[in-house]
TrEMBL record:
Pfam families: Hydant_A_C, Hydant_A_N, Hydantoinase_A. Residues 19-190 form the Hydantoinase/oxoprolinase N-terminal domain. InterPro entries: ACX-like_C (IPR049517), Hydant_A_N (IPR008040), Hydantoinase_A (IPR002821), Oxoprolinase-like (IPR045079). Residues 214-500 form the Hydantoinase A/oxoprolinase domain. Residues 513-674 form the Acetophenone carboxylase-like C-terminal domain. Transmembrane segments: none annotated. This is Hydantoinase/oxoprolinase family protein. It comes from Hoeflea alexandrii.
Length: 688
């Protein structure tokens, strides 16, 4: 592993400060630490503790910090909110909406999620109709009051709380994004009578038009709020005096920024994709370091496979996400997630072999871990094929049982007339096909040619599958980054504080004044400065990014166009929209009128951090050989420590390149060499 070695316990009296990040996964929790003085980074992995994720974080921190080490900065990504949503184990929520509009959330939109599927059903809402309550009163589309609020209608909800034990209440009233007075009055009325119930208002969560989407976003926030807040509170309490001075604990956001734990408790929805997004931000840093503008970033961990794009040096983002079929209005880094990881279980269904989405997780884990697992998984298959070293897994922290893995695969293979090795290859082929299809979803289905990208493979299991994925998709280069098994955690140390703000500002572009837009953006900037100031960021560390949603007159959906710094240039912005529309759809209509829908502002707070130092090389383990299976046959294969590869060196396959947090498979006909930043580039020799 290319990293700075963990500090020696009791090595002196001078305090050493570290920036530390933790990526809590379903199987492993990854820890990356950076010496503030030198900029050198190191990484380690510990088994996750699903019953209390904080325990794995604390164990990892204890492993990497010396007696004289202290945390200068701590950030972590969590899947607590996402898992609560996916498993439907969030809080019990009541919804308040306008009289005569009780069915907005239940009926949902008027589109079909899968147009040609006869089996498609609308997703199950998080709040059933019987938990939806209405209140009299109306705000008009222009923000004026049509009917006064009838607060007495809410007494029915107050009474229901006693019997139904609602943990949170979501309030979503018509046109509250233009005038929130009614939502605020409802919140105050309920808060006085239900002080222990958390209340969420739509104009705070998503001040944007589209009633169903805004309601869905608000309900999801309320559904996650108690769960996320309990988790953050528990983690803070468990960490105690390990936290940095001042107690600042930071959490990754779905938009690729970070926020303090206090802000995360107030905006739990922003943590939804907190775990996977670190890899995309790491991809952005890798793009800048290597000069490769277009990257397909794939993170294969123990439980899931996450795929994202970096285009022209920036992560692909969206202003809306669909999770479990339900829309969520928030800025997110585009990440496609499937259930395919090193812990994905191989099983038989209807006479066919399946792999995933079920995962063995960390408890009981793969059969080869010897922790009680009985069903073979992808990692068992890699071990049986010789691609993992059972005696040197996770830097020697764990010993893997190949015989147990082979027995489990042979038992499954008996149903298909295969031995253990043949069954193992079948498992690998199937999981590779699933991952290749996931990459096609975010590339070919969007009109993007994956052959124009480099494939960045990371996660504990990613580098072992990377070359096969590249061959399947005809990608000419694979990059294995530094700290590949903990690359998402490394990415978390490369980002800054970020808060996103938006406001619906509808008008024809040729009928609105530039000053009106400037005034609206100034209001959002003032809010952004307040948020960043609350997190201790002021002055020249504050910056803003502005954007506007546009569409041609008569269309339903919008494109978000970033604005250049400086005064609003109406003609240039219109031209930028026409150009972006042509790039997206292959044509445009410069002669048509354009509507603006929403304005958006990202408030960025630059964090102080050292430059990433060149990786420090440890003493490599001696090279050796073992048999590894390729194309159904065992071949003598070199086993090489990544630390032994120097600048200008190249390694030809077949080879296994080992390091602490991951293992890279270099098939026959492939070559590996080091590139900028200590990252490793793999290419097929005939393609090169």
């Amino acid at each position: 592993m290319w990293c700075a070695p963990p500090p020696v316990k009791g090595s002196g009296t001078v305090k050493t400060s570290y920036r530390v990040s933790a990526d809590i996964g379903g199987t492993f929790t990854d820890i990356v630490y950076q010496d503030v003085a030198t900029g050198r980074c190191g990484a380690t992995k510990v088994l996750s503790t699903p019953d209390n994720p904080a325990l794995a974080v604390l164990k990892g921190i204890d492993q990497v910090l010396s007696d004289n080490g202290e945390l200068a900065f701590f950030v972590h990504g969590t899947t607590v909110g996402l898992n609560a949503l996916l498993t439907r184990k969030g809080s019990k929520v009541a919804l308040v909406t306008n009289e005569n509009f009780r069915d907005i959330y239940t009926i949902q939109g008027n589109d079909r999620g899968e147009i040609f599927s006869i089996r498609w059903n609308k997703p199950e809402p998080l709040v059933p109709l019987e938990s939806t309550f209405t209140v009299g009163g109306r705000i008009a589309a222009d923000g004026s009051e049509l009917e006064p609020l009838r607060l007495s209608d809410l007494d029915q909800l107050v009474d229901a709380c006693a019997s139904e034990a609602y943990e949170a209440i979501a309030i979503s009233l018509l046109f509250s994004f233009n005038n929130p007075a009614h939502e605020v009055a409802v919140r105050d009325y309920l808060a006085d009578r239900l002080p222990d119930v958390q209340i969420v208002m739509s104009h705070k969560v998503s001040p944007e038009w589209r009633e169903f989407e805004r309601t869905s976003t608000t309900v999801t926030d309320a559904y996650l709020a108690p769960v996320v807040r309990r988790y953050i509170s528990t983690l803070q309490a468990e960490m105690g005096d390990r936290l940095p001075e001042g107690g600042a604990l930071h959490v990754m956001e779905s938009n690729g920024g970070v926020m303090t734990a206090t802000a995360a408790s107030e905006n739990p929805l922003q943590t939804l994709l907190s775990g996977p997004v670190g890899g995309a931000i790491g991809g952005k840093a890798l793009s800048a370091a290597t000069g490769r503008g277009n990257l397909i970033c794939v993170d294969m961990g123990g439980t899931s496979f996450d795929a994202s794009l970096v285009i022209d040096g920036l992560p692909s983002t969206s202003n809306e996400a669909m999770l479990e079929g339900l829309p969520i209005q928030m800025s997110v880094v585009d990440i496609h997630v499937i259930g395919a990881g090193g812990g994905s279980i191989a099983w038989k269904e209807a006479g066919a072999l399946r792999v995933g989405p079920q995962s063995a997780g960390s408890k009981p884990g793969p059969v080869c871990y010897g922790l009680g697992g009985t069903e073979p998984v992808v990692s068992d298959a890699n071990l049986v094929l010789g691609r993992l070293d059972g005696a040197n897994f996770s830097g020697g922290e764990m010993t893997l049982d190949r015989d147990a893995a082979a027995s489990a695969l042979a038992a499954l293979g008996s149903d298909f007339g295969m031995n253990a090795e043949e069954m193992a290859q079948g498992v690998i082929d199937i999981v590779n096909a699933k991952m290749a299809d996931a990459i096609r979803t975010i590339t070919i289905q969007r009109g993007i040619d994956p052959r124009e990208f480099s494939l960045v493979a990371f996660g504990g299991a990613g580098p072992a599958q990377a070359a096969a994925l590249a061959e399947e998709l005809e990608i000419s280069e694979v990059i294995i980054p530094v700290h590949p098994g903990a690359f998402s955690a490394w990415g978390m140390l490369q980002t800054d504080v970020r808060h996103d703000f938006k406001e619906t500002l509808y008008s024809f572009w040729d009928m609105i004044e530039a000053q009106t837009i400037e005034t609206a953006f100034s209001g959002l900037e003032e809010r952004g400065r307040r948020f960043l100031s609350d997190e201790g960021i002021t002055g020249d560390r504050v910056s803003f990014e502005r954007a506007i949603d546009f569409r041609y007159y008569g269309q339903e959906y919008v494109l978000t166009i970033p604005l250049a710094d400086g005064p609003i240039d109406m003609d240039r912005i219109r031209a930028d929209f026409d150009a972006a529309y042509e790039r997206q759809y292959g044509h445009n209509s410069p002669e048509n009128r354009v509507e603006m829908a929403n304005i958006r502002l990202a408030a960025l707070g630059r964090l102080e951090r050292p430059e990433n130092a060149a990786p420090e090389r440890e003493t490599p383990r001696p090279a050796r050989e073992r048999e590894v299976w390729f194309a159904g046959q065992p071949r003598a294969t070199s086993i090489i420590d990544r630390n032994s590869i120097g600048d200008g060196d190249s390694v030809s396959g077949p080879a296994i390149i080992e390091e602490v947090t991951s293992t890279t498979l270099l098939p026959p006909g492939w070559t590996a060499r080091l590139i900028e930043g200590g990252h490793m580039s793999l290419s097929k020799e005939d393609a090169a």
